[in-house]
Amino acid sequence: MFFKALAELDGGDFSFMERTLPPAGRRPPPHRHTNCSEAYFVLDGRVSVVVEGEELTVGPEGFVLVPRGTAHTFGNAGDDEARLLVIHAPAMDAYFADLHDLWNRADVPSPEEERALMARFGMEPA
Fold this sequence. Notes:
alpha+beta
């Protein structure tokens, strides 16, 4: 993940990142953001976005908006690396910084720890 815009730049209104998704990579568990909207713009490859149980496969220049409160998950839908831009409004970069720390510690985090982190940032299981 490469953040292009962080909360500190605009009082937390917006964050913007570029993500690379490996083929057959891990998907986030289906969830809802109670306090922000999320949008995806695909640069390369194919991305599967499941919105309220409906799977959308999006290729280059495809766009998906996930309004706050909408159940969703996403992942690479192809055999090659996929790249996409992700927008959160308001900003969610602090969540991803904490998630990075959780995933990169010596012991593997439990599902409960990951859910607790999600809850701290206004996300709930779908």
